[in-house]
Predict the structure.
Amino acid sequence: MIRSVFWRPLDEIGLEHLWFERTPDWLRADGFVLQTKNGLPFRVHYRIETASDWSMRSCTLAVENHAGVQRRLDLRVNERGEWHDAATEQDLSQLAGCREVDIQVTPFTNSLPIGRLKLRPGETRDIKAAYIEVPELIVSPAPQRYTALAQNRFRYEGLQTAFAAELSLDADGLVLDYPGVFMRVDRSFAD
């Protein structure tokens, strides 16, 4: 199954297009983001691959900023939660315990912990995510909390920032509504 969805940020100019592919063995998200940050444009291409249970395997990002500067991350994580940047050949021990990425400019990455945790209404779980600032590609651990409010409705909390939002997801686990941050432009269509 391949899904195609679009989101736009509500606080900047931009648009994201995501292809989401699911097989019995893995999930793949391939996204392009055209956006501004503080009024300056940039482009991002990301690809995330997980096991069929939404457990992270890899995340690659390529960014070009308004000045033409290009940056790249090629993150890999193993089943023990050990992170490595294959682009720089560096181990990322500061990300120990992180299970997913949280890319600043896409709502898709909220689907990763929600899909993996499989929370039932009323359940709450604290996690650590590898938070990626874009276009800078600064990666740092970020404690987060997810609470299932109802089927396909979750509360997200950034525990360091005190930010919270209620997220609505579709049947495939993709964000429909992220109040004040992102809006789904096209609900979806099959390719």
